[in-house]
Amino acid sequence: MFQFFKRMQTVVGSELNAMLDKAEDPIKMLDQFMREMEADIREVESSVVKQIANEKFLQKKVNDSNSMITKREEQAIKALEAGNEDLARRALEDKKVHSEQVSSLQESHNRAKEDASVLRSKLDEMKNEYNQMKLKKDSLKARAESAQVRTKMNRTMSGVGGNESRNGFDRMEEKVLQFEAEAETSEDMRSSNRSLDDEFKSLDSGVDDELAALKKRMAKS
């Protein structure tokens, strides 16, 4: 179980180079790793709870046996005071049984207490590593998202200035030039198509104006 955390440190410490080489999504993989770590922590937490419960159970057994030892000794004294030696002997025999049990139970309790302490320490270590990995994950996710945005922008910008776009602008420019040439040609054709009468009319109109002006000056003089 704890080997997984060591593997996580290696993966995250190398900043997911292996995953990137395999074209895996680092953001999704980081989230998956964190979920696996959370599951491991929950498993260890469950083990700690069970071990603590076992420790408390053994402690209760030790306490009960010690209480029984005290009780049997008091009963043996009362039996002797009452002149019942046989009853006192039986009480002392049961006291001896409980005394032997206490030694074994105390040894088991000490071992359970030590195991619970080790598990608590491991759990704290795992949680600390998890928090460190979480901070590292958040940093890597932000960097990965930033890199993806930059890549998308660069691709978009390269597309705007690409050959296809430039060729399209060139074609549109040629069409505009063609439209302008057609417009100029139509104006030239219109001028060339004027009739001779129209030209004389224009000429006559100019002479008449000049003649009228000349008559006006002569009248004044």
TrEMBL record:
It comes from the Bacteria. Residues 148-157 have a biased composition (Polar residues). Residues 167-177, 187-202 have a biased composition (Basic and acidic residues). This is PspA/IM30 family protein. Belongs to the PspA/Vipp/IM30 family. It holds the Pfam family PspA_IM30. Coiled coil: none annotated. Residues 95-116, 148-202 are annotated as: Disordered. InterPro entries: PspA_VIPP1. Signal peptide: none annotated. It comes from Paenisporosarcina antarctica.
